[in-house]
Inverse folding.
């Protein structure tokens, strides 16, 4: 029998998804992990009752956090992913043949093991790729002690609740910056500004203090309800955000990747912000 699952994230607004069949419901060492089937969205992963990803709309989020910074960089060889246990981000990053090494730092091995079994359409064979260096650790501890330097760092975290909270602090952002190679790009998931405006304001304040170029860009992901989602962008080379359309087209074609949301025009347009979001940026 179907029953509605209601996301517990916002005080005055709720997202409900019908669970046609619950496939898994259990506590890991860090959080409560549930996967259920929904007719429209396919398999839905929730952690502590917050939607993390769904089979049908994951491509939007993962493509925009992976391909946009990698193609803006133009020669990314080393990529860091913090979080991302479902493997969708890793799968997109590994599509770039030029990427030689990906370090993924995930706090909860349970999410990875689980995703390999229950969400193979999202992670595919990504966890078997020899370019992957998988570290099971808190991302905050990892960046505080990291000696490697990355061309692109992607923070694919849960919302700032529970284990993910630390990934939204000024200290974390400062340490994450030290993991970047010169001209490296840091991108972060920053929630839905209409409902989580404070998150974006705090991240942008921290990025402006840390980077020569701090900005955010947007994409609308149906199950991150309440308007477009914001992604933070921090880089010491302002030219990386100004790459022209022709160059992006050339890089996209050379990468030979197939995308369903990302394209170079969307890439450039994603940085155009409506006024209510501009107002959230200090
Ligand atoms: N796309 C998702 C969203 O916006 O809701 C995020 C998905 S991904 C499943 C988030 C991952 O971040 C989870 O696997 C979680 O275990 C991991 N995570 C949370 N806190 C972390 C931390 N402090 N260090 C490393 N990984 C963390």
């Amino acid at each position: 029998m179907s029953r509605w699952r209601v996301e517990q994230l916002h005080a005055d607004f709720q997202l409900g998804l019908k669970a046609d069949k619950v496939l898994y419901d259990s506590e890991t060492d860090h959080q409560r992990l549930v996967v259920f089937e929904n007719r429209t969205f396919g398999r839905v992963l929730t952690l502590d009752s917050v939607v993390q990803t769904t089979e049908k709309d994951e491509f939007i989020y993962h493509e925009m956090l992976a391909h946009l910074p990698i193609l803006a960089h133009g020669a990314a060889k080393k990529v860091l992913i913090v979080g991302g246990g479902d493997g969708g981000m890793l799968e997109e990053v590994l599509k770039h043949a030029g990427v030689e090494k990906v370090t993924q730092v995930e706090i909860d091995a349970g999410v990875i093991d689980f995703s390999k079994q229950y969400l193979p359409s999202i992670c595919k064979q990504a966890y078997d790729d020899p370019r992957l260096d998988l570290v099971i650790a808190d991302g905050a501890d990892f960046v505080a002690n990291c000696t490697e330097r990355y061309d692109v760092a992607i923070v694919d975290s849960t919302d700032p609740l529970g284990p993910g909270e630390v990934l939204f602090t000024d200290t974390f952002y400062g340490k994450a910056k030290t993991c970047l190679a010169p001209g490296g790009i840091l991108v972060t998931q920053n929630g839905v500004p209409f409902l989580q405006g404070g998150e974006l304001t705090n991240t942008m304040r921290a990025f402006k203090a840390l980077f020569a170029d701090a900005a955010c860009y947007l994409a609308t992901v149906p199950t991150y309800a309440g308007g477009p989602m914001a992604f933070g962008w921090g880089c010491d080379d302002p030219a990386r955000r100004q790459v022209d359309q022709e160059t992006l087209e050339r890089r996209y074609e050379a990468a030979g990747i197939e995308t369903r949301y990302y394209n170079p025009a969307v890439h450039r347009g994603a940085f155009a912000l409506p006024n209510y979001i501009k107002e959230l940026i200090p």
The chain has a mean pLDDT of 96.
